[in-house]
Amino acid sequence: MSDPSSVPPPLVRAQPDEIAPGVFVIHDHRVPLVPNIGIILGEHSALVVDTGMGPANGAAVLEAARKIADGRRLILTLTHFHPEHGFGAQAFKGAAQIVYNRAQAAELAAKGPAYLDMFRGMSADVAAALDGTHLVEADDLYNGAEHRIDLGGRTVVLRTWGQAHTLADQVVWLPAERVLFTGDLAEERIFPIFPWFPPDDADIDARGWLAALDAMVEMAPAIVVPGHGSAGGKEIVQGVADYIRSVAAAVQAGDDADTITAQMQARHPDWDAPEWIGFAVRYFQDRPL
Ligand SMILES: [Zn+2]
Question: Which positions ≥6 away from 196 have C-beta within 8 Å?
Fold first, then answer.
């Protein structure tokens, strides 16, 4: 683990970058606990994907979205309930229509307060970012695997494969432009985040996660915006699937956590956050594929 004093505070730098016509990303700049954030424009509406953590980050993202949206109606959705992705949503309450899937809303209600406490305990900078945070409910919930939103001349698809990195991770897919926002189902040059915290949270499901990743590769996205890290192509998604399968296979073969960690770091020398390898190993020790 890195020295906490060297970790930058989890602040969103709200300078959107247009990665495709009318599709903007506020990049994470590889700052821990800052996600990639999307702003997608249609003729009459704009969809914001994730908010960053805490009211100040949420307000900065809202301000950036308002500038780009230029009077269009705002809609907010979250890729999943984790604090750095959605605990800035309060800034959008009343300013945007907030849309989640029903299972994600239930997970946020059930686990949100405990995650808020857990994150506040991580560092003074994280606690400061979360100061004044309260959890807000969605305005609209959808059932089932898919929800389409017409932004005016552009359709976006909110899609979940159910239990994976959380109980109901949701991607955002632009079928015409083949742009995919993956949330934490995929990271780029970062060891995948395995939130395996039994008994407090044991809801990650690697089989479901792999099924989602395989489905995303099949969708043949031209641009993948991962939860964290740089945007790229579908090789980002394939890389996560290959990593998860390789950790599962190494655990199955009887390798111990230190050996597997060394193997994975040797295989991916430019990936950050190696502490997540041990979480993946412990998961597969409990739940072989
Ligand atoms: Zn997450």
Answer: 202, 204, 279, 280, 282, 283, 286
